[in-house]
Design a protein that fits this description.
13 helices; mainly alpha; 232 residues; 0% strand; 76% helix
């Protein structure tokens, strides 16, 4: 089992590199098998299809992303600050590893996961569920900071969903050439700043009452994701 796990990790690492060069849709399983020095049959013994491989890559990317969230968990501040840091680290990971985010993004399409094996898809769902629960826990613990009664969960759940949509949308836009056509490189170069301000505004709307919320969020970004001080 250990040898099989090591081989699977090798396949995924090589697949990530190959996709970065040629793209997922041009990836050939035979080329990947050759790169891994294994037979095509052995490759299909690990991943039943290209769709299965892509979800495997997404799960690998999600595991690497989750490691970043430990920084938020260990932050010596409030639950809302931990929530903010986790959102910022989420975007920062995508900026640093665009090819891994692309795998995660593509793997959410029904045309991919409906063709994958149930076990692979379930692993994907379990991983997303664990991350969602982490964000929700931060918000539940920080409900008092938002002026939300501890027994009212719908507001924090809606906030979690809203900030997830906000962060995920910026993730996608940062990596899209469509953004460049409309904004030049402004969004790409200032994505963290833009998320900082949007996240602060969202939390203020949810009831977060702090002095200079935008500056507080940017200060956390400077501490944890190397926010450029020269950005507007």
């Amino acid at each position: 089992m250990e040898k099989r796990q090591q081989r699977e990790e090798l396949i995924l690492e090589n697949a990530a590199g190959l996709i970065a060069k040629v793209g997922f849709f041009e990836l050939k399983m035979s080329d990947l098998a050759k790169l891994c020095a294994i037979s095509v049959g052995t490759l299909y013994g690990h991943f039943a299809s290209k769709e299965d491989l892509l979800i495997g890559l997404a799960v690998m990317a999600g595991a690497k992303r989750a490691e970043k969230f430990d920084t938020a968990r260990h932050h010596d501040g409030s639950a809302i600050e931990k929530y903010i840091i986790a959102n910022l680290l989420d975007l920062w990971f995508s900026i640093e590893h665009p090819q891994l985010f692309e795998a995660e993004y593509l793997a959410l399409a029904p045309s991919i996961w409906t063709r994958a094996t149930p076990a692979r898809h379930q692993a994907q769902l379990d991983q997303i569920g664990a991350v969602t629960e982490m964000f929700q826990t931060f918000l539940t613990q920080g409900a008092g900071e938002l002026g939300i009664a501890s027994d009212i969960t719908s507001r924090t759940r809606n906030l979690n969903l809203g900030s997830w949509g906000l962060g995920y949308g910026i993730n996608v836009l940062v990596l899209s050439e469509i953004t460049d056509r409309h904004y030049g490189h402004q969004l790409r170069e200032n994505a963290i700043n833009i998320l900082c301000d949007a996240l602060a505004d969202l939390l203020i709307g949810a009831g977060w009452q702090v002095d200079d919320a935008r500056q507080k969020v940017r200060a956390l970004a400077e501490r944890y994701v190397a926010l450029p001080r020269s950005s507007g």
